[in-house]
Amino acid sequence: MLFVFVIYDLFSCTAKDKVPHCEPRTFKGQRGDMAECLAARLTAQEEQIRLLTGEICALREGLSRGLVVVGDAAASPVLESLRAENEKLRYRLLHLRRGLQAELELEEAKGTRQQGAKCVKAPQKTTTTTTTTNSSSKNCNSKEKQTNKRPDSNDKAAAPELKSGEKNKEKKKQDKAQGNSGVKELKPWPTYISDRLSLYEELKRENDALLAKKATNGKPITVELPDGRKVAGKAWVTTPYQCACDISQGLADNAVISRVNGELWDLDRPLEQDCSLEILRFDDEDAQAVYWHSSAHILGEAMERFFGGCLCYGPPIENGFYYDMFLDGEKGVSSTEFGDLETLCKTVMKEKQPFERLEISKETLLRMFKYNKFKCRILNEKVTTPTTTVYRCGPLIDLCRGPHVRHTGKIKAMRIYKNSSTYWEGRSDMETLQRIYGISFPDSKMLKEWEHFQEEAKNRDHRKIGKDQELFFFHDLSPGSCFFMPRGAYIYNTLAEFIRGEYWRRGFQEVASPNIYNSKLWETSGHWQHYSENMFSFPVEDDVFALKPMNCPGHCLMFSHRPRSWRELPLRLADFGVLHRNELSGTLTGLTRVRRFQQDDAHIFCTMDQIESEMKGCLDFLRCVYDVFGFSFQLHLSTRPEKYLGDIAVWNQAEKQLENSLNEFGEPWKLNPGDGAFYGPKIDIKIKDAIGRYHQCATIQLDFQLPIRFNLTFVGKDGDDRVRPVIIHRAILGSVERMIAILTENYAGKWPLWLSPRQVMLVPVNPSCEDYAKSVCKLFTEAGFMADADLDSSCLLNKKIRNAQLAQYNFILVVGEKEKMTNNVNVRTRDNKVHGELSVAEVLARLTLLKESRCRSAEEEF
């Protein structure tokens, strides 16, 4: 016998027919009724879950007996929907109760102030009778105490009196019922929170009704998974999370976010049409950014509840997240408050507050955020569409494009580790903001590993090492422009000479171009229209000039100053010219973000047919350089964006050549569809340092538009003198300043011999050997080594050797009477490896060979 079970849409049925519907007239005045209504709705839905679970069990029994199930046989998505709705109801109930408690405390505070006022006035009316005055004052205080009583009060008048243990249990019970977590926070919350929530709830009901209507009329859709499988769904009903559950509950539990048709998508946001679907875990870069963005919202909620200021921006960053807040007056944030903030964040995480997305008109949002001038600025200056989105978790509602994790409980471990002052949008003439940084992970083990990593990174900070080793410094009289001292300049020049040597081997021609250009050049290149605010410009006679922020427009002038032939191509022009960019003072950070810098900049002018071979040369160049430094690297091919310029056939041909060159290069690479620049595709390269951090330094970028803007042409093989070249923008080190910062931290100040600012230290055993030490030191200096002699007679021999090792001299050469007589030196390394006594000539020859070969472990290879 064939039994057919049809599972109805219990979720919609429950909402319409079986569950009490909550229609509060006002958020503030009807919170009690809403709480009761939500509690009733929660109870009714839990009953529906029990019934649904029973039906699922019956279905399973039927399946085990070979029965056929028709309809929505996969009942788990329905069950998940009910459970998700129940979670939302629980949190709404929790926050309603908290709101009621906050209002009660506000009312009591008002009552206290009123009674206090009566107490102050009473003596004026009864100045003739002291007894009356005291009596009046006593009555007033008595009333005040009665008004402010709590169920957990220690006042003996509280009835009935409970034992100590019973009091604690009763207090915890009542705190839980009222939503009191016991953590430090403002009581009551700022009034803008309840006003914001009231408007949001009203808009949410309207949106839910609209979504329900769309779901009713939803059409069947097909969802394609990464392995090629296709699953059926329903538009405006099926969610990525439901699809993940059908694949594997483990996948669903570990999912951070989804990618739908290449776009990041909330796991609980219904799919709208046929689509491709990927479920992303924390190990994906995009998923990490979403995870940290959601963590920033948790921090934002805690900051509002703790400080009560105005939130500004709260983005994810390369490793973690931050949130900016404006506080009235001279208030600031202290590191002593991190513990309380973390406790509040943990409370939010335990509550598993769902992230809700809502699209709202700009006009309504200006009303919602009228208390916050910064959000209003964002809406007026940044939002160019009629509507935009907000996300809610708990009492926090914030302007946000999203997407986010399903709920705050997905964040398992969080640490608040740093705070600073900054300016609104980095401009020193704007308001001062308080910025708080945090990090989060899916488990506590990862957080502990990160903390260990941070301690290691702190010890490697290039700013600290640069100061300790006397390499460079900054001065307020030239912000963002580094002063390289002799030893720092040695590193700077050695890097430049390394690249110059490779230029000669690879057919590049080094040029020198002006630092200052008329603004007409930048108008031609397009930088004046889109980049002028980042340029240092100034009037000269009747014109405006600017310091160059990049070399490419000047190189275009070099190409076009005379007719060019196909025989000259590829033309590879390299330039170490000084560049200036007007970075905001609030963003300047050591050598990693500066205003004055140099690049190992080069531009290759070539034909379309030469792109592939030139790309192979560029890739080989970067591998050669990064191997010397000891960096591994990642490659990403970024292809045509939606808003591209030029002929699509040219784009397709160029992208195919880039792909061919990457395949032949032999290193793994990834595709970043649509992430190219509007003027051409590119290859992005990220290097990995000694402690696992990734940095983008090198770039290889095709440009089809600059040759058009400058009307660059050459004479082709067929005599056509109007053939357009292609430009390849190429850098390996990138900014030399930034590369020095990365290398400093990568080596932790223990520079390899060829790059070291302290290569050789001569240590005389006694004053009689000082002249010999100086003569040997001179030999090494003349041979191109950074050599010194320690002639401080107040230090003992062992102290001198230890000082040299701590200063990171690669080799310490000890000379005594014996070495002086035989023209030898006794060699040891900074790691105290003793190589013994050798002739000066042999040591000089060995070190020269190690230096020229750019050996990374010269101390071991010696």
From TrEMBL:
The keyword Nucleotide-binding applies. Residues 141-155, 163-176 have a biased composition (Basic and acidic residues). Pfam families: HGTP_anticodon, TGS, tRNA-synt_2b, tRNA_SAD. Residues 125-140 have a biased composition (Low complexity). The keyword Ligase applies. InterPro entries: aa-tRNA-synt_IIb, aa-tRNA-synth_II, Anticodon-bd, TGS, Thr-tRNA-ligase_IIa, ThrRS_anticodon, ThrRS_core, tRNA_SAD. Residues 1-15 form the signal peptide. Residues 107-184 are annotated as: Disordered. It is found in: Cytoplasm. Residues 217-281 form the TGS domain. It catalyses: tRNA(Thr) + L-threonine + ATP = L-threonyl-tRNA(Thr) + AMP + diphosphate + H(+). Keywords: Aminoacyl-tRNA synthetase, ATP-binding, Cytoplasm, Ligase, Nucleotide-binding, Protein biosynthesis, Signal. It is an enzyme of class 6 (ligase). GO terms for cellular component: mitochondrion. Residues 488-764 form the Aminoacyl-transfer RNA synthetases class-II family profile domain. GO terms for molecular function: ATP binding; threonine-tRNA ligase activity. It comes from the Eukaryota. GO terms for biological process: threonyl-tRNA aminoacylation. Its EC number is 6.1.1.3. Catalyzes the attachment of threonine to tRNA(Thr) in a two-step reaction: threonine is first activated by ATP to form Thr-AMP and then transferred to the acceptor end of tRNA(Thr). Also edits incorrectly charged tRNA(Thr) via its editing domain, at the post-transfer stage. HAMAP family: Thr_tRNA_synth. Belongs to the class-II aminoacyl-tRNA synthetase family. This is threonine--tRNA ligase. It comes from Solea senegalensis.
